[in-house]
TrEMBL record:
Belongs to the MsrP family. Its EC number is 1.8.5.-. Mo-molybdopterin binds at N82, Y85, E86, C140, T175, N223, R228, S239, I240, K241. Keywords: Metal-binding, Molybdenum, Oxidoreductase, Signal. Residues 102-257 form the Oxidoreductase molybdopterin-binding domain. This is Protein-methionine-sulfoxide reductase catalytic subunit MsrP. It comes from Cycloclasticus zancles 78-ME. Predicted to be exported by the Tat system. The position of the signal peptide cleavage has not been experimentally proven. Gene3D superfamilies: Oxidoreductase, molybdopterin-binding domain.
Length: 322
């Protein structure tokens, strides 16, 4: 797809302010409902409403042709039910503790097989990128899913600007390591820092998103501020948060979940209803934020993004390379 530059934007490309405010109003209505409904449930009820409004608005973004036209998961769930083991293993831990993370200023190190290695200021990188809103489903390996209006920029665009060499076959991503800011790193539940990786062609697929926000706001810390990956056709654990380093490599990166349990979490981790996790089925998923009476959703191959990504795995045995 052609990424539009800010200078070529027309009024039609930008989310109309009225729509934006309407969606804000909807969010705050559902938030009020949530706050009254939730007596002990999750975390949002325990936080002052102001804490939930911490994010700064993102001003300039276009809407993406890749967006799903589906019901969004309410903001409270997107930001209150998280996996971010750097802040603890309970789903409510990240929203309670992630304020400890200082996200400004933030530097991103680019290294390995690349013509433009260096330590970049995230602010400077963002000046070169076109932000888009992309409504994607995030499907966790634990068999639940959410539909989130992410805001971010194309990973492929960033990679092109950094000019990887012909030896670059994989892209390795690393999360910040700082147990003072990320107290969960004092536990040995995973080997820190958290590392994820993609094959170069996966990283260059137009769906791969470097996300900096959601619901029109800068990324909440619990969702991986200030910069996290979203790979919508793969299980959620590939979508690494709070990235400080991107390295171009010849060898397949050693990724955290694969290192911790090889038989449970493969390098590819493509969403696949036909390949069960050794301890549970992947056929269906719980829709986060839906009522208790809402039936589970049938999980789709590649999380429904097959038309965009199936070519990447042509001829590969997806049971072997899970
Ligand atoms: N650094 C880091 N990134 C991470 C994780 C983590 O524990 N640490 N959890 C992953 C998992 S298992 C999921 S499902 C998604 C959850 O993203 P969300 O909290 O924004 O929904 O983040 C992924 N990225
Ligand atoms: Mo996950």
């Amino acid at each position: 797809m052609g990424i539009k530059k800010l200078t070529s934007l027309t009024d039609n490309d930008v989310t109309p302010k009225a729509d934006f405010d309407k969606s804000r109003a909807l969010i705050s209505a559902s938030r009020r409902q949530f706050l009254t409904r939730s007596s002990g449930f999750m975390v949002a009820g325990a936080l002052a409403p102001d804490a939930l409004w911490a994010g700064n608005k993102i001003e300039n973004y276009v809407t993406s042709q890749f967006s799903l036209k589906e019901k969004l998961t309410p903001y409270e769930y997107v930001t209150g039910y998280n996996n971010f083991y750097e802040f603890g293993t309970a789903k409510s831990d990240p929203a309670l503790r992630a304020h400890l993370l200082k996200t400004k200023p933030w530097s991103l190190t680019i290294e390995g097989e690349v013509a433009k290695p260096g330590v970049y200021n995230l602010e400077d990188i963002l000046k070169q990128q076109q932000l888009e809103e992309r409504i994607y489903r995030l499907r966790c390996v634990e068999a639940w899913s959410m539909v989130v209006p992410w805001i971010g920029f194309s990973l492929a665009e960033l990679i092109r600007q950094m000019e990887p060499t012909s030896k670059a076959k994989y892209v390795e991503f690393t999360t910040l390591y700082d147990p003072k800011q990320m107290p969960g790193q004092k536990s040995r539940i995973l080997k820190w820092p958290y590392v994820e990786g993609l094959r170069m062609d996966e990283a260059m697929n137009p769906l791969s998103l470097m996300a900096t926000g959601l619901y029109g706001e800068e990324m909440p810390n619990q969702n991986g501020a200030p910069l996290r990956l979203i790979v919508p056709w793969k299980y959620g654990f590939k979508s690494i948060k709070s990235i400080v380093k991107i390295k171009f490599t010849e060898q397949m990166p050693k990724t955290s979940w694969n290192e911790s349990a090889k038989n449970e979490y493969g390098f590819y981790a493509n969403v696949n209803p036909d390949v069960p996790h050794p301890r549970w089925s992947q056929r269906r998923e719980r829709v986060i934020g839906a009522s208790l009476f809402t039936p589970k959703r049938d999980t789709e191959l590649f999380n429904g993004y097959g038309e965009h990504v199936a070519y990447l795995y042509k001829g590969m045995n997806l049971r072997q390379f899970f």
